[in-house]
Amino acid sequence: MKAAGMNITFRHFPFPYFLEAMSELGVDRIELWAGEPHLYVCRNALGTIRSMRKQLRARDMKVVCYTPEQCIYPYNIAASDEHWRQKSVDYFIENLYAAVELGADTMLLTSGIGDFSVALEESWKAAADSIFRLCQAAEREGVTLALEPLTRFESNLITDARGVKRMLEEIRSPALKGMIDTVAMQLAGETPEDYFALLGEVSHVHLIDGDGQSDAHLALDDGVLNWRQYLAGLQSCGYRGDCTLEIMGYAYYRNPKETMESSISKLQELGVLSSG
Asked: Which of 32, 61, 74, 77 is at 20 to 30 A from 92, Cα to Cα?
């Protein structure tokens, strides 16, 4: 297994600062959060992508997962409004092309959130239709879509492994795979072993601590989650992919390098994950 850094923790610093910090910490695998001010496909995308690609190559870094911002910006693939939903699908397709240009084999996707004014099943069908169309594009481009469950504080659709399994079974696309977010997993009362038992495999992992009560994404040992046990579970299930430190919060944004360094050192001490 490999540890990956994520620029979302560095969202209030320039992108080159993030890359330099990762180089100094010996991390050559990153999950690229595609959001302002680093990269937003609706603003100067081509120039930004070319610049990023050059900087990544200069440091011999690999984008292991490309993650479009999809919780803050006004995009929702489960929206009842068909025009809004189409705009959301278009947004993700543009991000898919950006992922390809940056050499990423995986793009993260969530189910969106269903409108509270309609039946939940109607929203599920809207999300499934959107995901099916995105899978068609992903299959053409050779990209895996990692379907991430959100927490119950973020969505009313896919919030656990059972929801991921249902969507995978409905879509039946080789491009669509499940993934783990340890905060969402803990809030759903699940373990890595549950994911592998239900899905057979997972394509990506967000490894973070949490407070056990909210969707807070904390640095390792800043919360109450037994993330060491999660790592052991992943290892016993044969997972050999990347584990991204998706750490978020105002205190972390002010000191992102120190935050990342602390969590990476804990992983290195365990000897389970390597940073390079």
From this structure: 61
| Spatial distance between the Cα atoms of 36 and 31, rounded to a whole number of angstroms | 15
- DSSP three-state, residue 225: coil
Cβ contact 79:90 at 8 Å:
no
Q: Tell me the whole-structure pTM to 2 decimals.
A: 0.96
Cβ atoms 56, 63 nearer than 8 A: yes
- The sign of the CA dihedral 6, 258, 232, 197 is negative
- Whether 63 and 104 have beta carbons less than 8 Å apart is answered as yes
* Joined tokens for residue 93: 């397709």
Which class in CATH covers the domain with range 2-270? alpha beta
Largest CA distance in the chain: 50
Alpha-carbon distances, residue 145 vs 18, 79, 165, 209, 258 (angstroms): 25, 20, 14, 24, 31
Distance CA 255, CA 262 (A): 11
Confidence category of residue 211, pLDDT binned at 50, 70, 90: very high
Residue 273: is its pLDDT beyond 80?
no
Q: Cα(10)–Cα(8) distance, rounded to whole angstroms?
A: 5
| Domain boundaries of the chain, sorted by first residue | 2-270
The helix/strand/coil state of 198 is helix
Q: Is 158 helix (H, G, I), strand (E, B) or coil?
A: coil
With CA atoms as reference, report the closest residue to 263 among 221, 230, 229. 221
Q: pLDDT of 231-255, one tens digit each?
A: 999 999 999 999 999 999 999 999 9
Whether the Cβ atoms of residue 230 and residue 182 lie closer than 8 Å to each other: yes
Q: What is the pLDDT of residues 168-204, one digit of tens each?
A: 999 999 999 999 999 999 999 999 999 999 999 999 9
Cβ 1 vs Cβ 234: under 8 Å = yes
